[in-house]
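RECORD CONTENTS
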Amino acid sequence: MAKKNRKKKAPGGQVIATNRRARHDYTILDTFECGIVLVGPEIKSLREGRASLAEAFATIDDGEVWLRQLHIPEYSMASWTNHSPRRTRKLLLHRREIDSLYGKVRDGNKTLVPLSLYLKDGRVKVELGLAQGKQDYDKRQDIKRRTEEREVVRELGRRVKGMTA
């Protein structure tokens, strides 16, 4: 019997794409769930699990949030109605959230980075993070902390095995 290809579950649904590099390169200060404006073939391509957040980022222009450089490949079954794979897409947020984000991005060296793209109740959602860039020494400290935590878990596992044996 063949195993089904199962995707991880997001806070509300099936994950389409994640930006693992974002958590490595940035410190995530806050996250927001937002909708995204798509055209017909794009949603069909996303339901197939085809998207890349690798180079994507968000900007605030004229009081609206735009997602740039998100790559959604063309849907193979669509004809002349296909979309441009890297077109700029509008993100849907409440006005007070946009105003808050605009103030935070304008004031300091912060940026808006998409963290994940997922389906929730049949709609595509973007988890958008307010991020601040990490320096090299911050990245090294994170790696050191993770290895120390792994060693502690390993040692605890050895002690538990030693007590039961």
